[in-house]
């Protein structure tokens, strides 16, 4: 592309190409402006093309992270499988968090296509990022966990619990939310007995955690996992812990207890006898709480209680 053309002219010239050939796009991949390069990359047809390996590998180290992200987005569709894996695994260690996040998205695309050996290599690289400094990356790792364990099954039980444990004590609320959802998904995948053996002890560990925010997230985990494990398992294992947290020293935790009880009652998950004998007295106690917000929420919950 002639450097005599200014940026807008070069970009307009590129966009005017209706069905560009690789030869035409290669010219723009060497442009001095990142926007032109990104636009050209997005116009590449999504099919394996051996000729793209060298230019894409070169652009994967470009100083501009937007270009590196775009390369990663098209790599699973335009490179041979092994080349794509090689490029993506390198990007998982990139200094830029957006690049690492895009690399994880590309891993999700590849996981259903690769061999067992390649899958294990990618899965290990993903799990190793559970302590990444960027919360969006850590959340993405938790999001991908059910997909990873669905391939290996119970063989990864110990490693799975380690990743979930890491996510449950994360400083980011969004990471903890995703961990709770993934935890429930994995219990649904492996069954109630697995949940009792591996997840219930994890919840017991965190429901008395010194950080009240983690206790709040653990309350959410009890309810989400409880739905999957069933009414009997929930009533036996989790309900006593929820009711114990109704007396937590932190008002926000007591509020969360009421919020979760409201969800349980609204969905008619609990037997009426349990609501009357165990939940209703707890709500009555919280209606006399020293915190006005707790009192207000408890009083709002009362009409939902079936005490007949």
TrEMBL record:
It holds the Pfam family VPS15-like_hel. One of its GO terms (molecular function) is protein phosphatase regulator activity. GO terms for cellular component: cytosol; nucleus; protein phosphatase type 2A complex. Residues 82-224 form the Phosphatase 2A Regulatory Subunit A helical domain. InterPro entries: 2AA_helical, ARM-like, ARM-type_fold, PP2A_Regulatory_Subunit_A. Keywords: Repeat. PANTHER family: PROTEIN PHOSPHATASE 2 (FORMERLY 2A), REGULATORY SUBUNIT A, BETA ISOFORM-RELATED (PTHR10648:SF4), SERINE/THREONINE-PROTEIN PHOSPHATASE PP2A 65 KDA REGULATORY SUBUNIT (PTHR10648). This is Protein phosphatase PP2A regulatory subunit A, putative. It comes from Entamoeba invadens IP1. The lineage of its organism: Eukaryota, Amoebozoa, Evosea, Archamoebae, Mastigamoebida.
């Amino acid at each position: 592309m002639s450097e005599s053309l200014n940026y807008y002219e070069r970009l307009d010239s590129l966009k005017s190409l209706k069905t560009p050939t690789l030869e035409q796009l290669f010219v723009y991949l060497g442009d001095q402006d990142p926007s032109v390069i990104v636009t050209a990359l997005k116009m590449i047809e999504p099919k394996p093309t051996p000729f793209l390996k060298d230019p894409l590998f070169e652009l994967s180290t470009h100083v501009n992270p937007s270009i590196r992200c775009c390369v990663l987005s098209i790599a699973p569709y335009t490179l041979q499988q092994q080349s794509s894996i090689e490029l993506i695994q390198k990007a998982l260690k990139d200094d830029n968090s957006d690049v690492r996040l895009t690399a994880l998205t590309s891993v999700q695309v590849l996981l259903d296509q690769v061999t067992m050996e390649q899958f294990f290599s990618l899965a290990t690289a993903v799990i190793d990022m559970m302590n990444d400094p960027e919360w969006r990356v850590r959340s993405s790792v938790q999001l991908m966990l059910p997909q990873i364990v669905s391939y290996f099954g119970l063989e990864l039980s110990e490693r799975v619990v380690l990743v979930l444990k890491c996510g449950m004590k994360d400083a980011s609320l969004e990471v903890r939310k995703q961990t709770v959802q993934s935890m429930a998904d994995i219990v649904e995948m492996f069954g109630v007995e697995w949940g009792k053996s591996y997840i219930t002890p994890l919840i017991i560990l965190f429901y008395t955690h010194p950080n009240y925010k983690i206790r709040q997230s653990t309350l959410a985990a009890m309810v989400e996992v409880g739905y999957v494990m069933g009414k009997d398992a929930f009533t036996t294992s989790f309900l006593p812990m929820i009711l114990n947290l109704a007396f937590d020293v932190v008002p926000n935790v007591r509020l969360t207890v009421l919020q979760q009880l409201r969800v349980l009652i609204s969905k008619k998950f609990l037997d009426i006898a349990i609501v009357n004998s165990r939940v209703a007295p707890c709500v009555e106690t919280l209606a006399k709480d020293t915190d006005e917000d707790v009192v207000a929420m408890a009083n709002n919950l009362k009409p939902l209680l079936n005490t007949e």
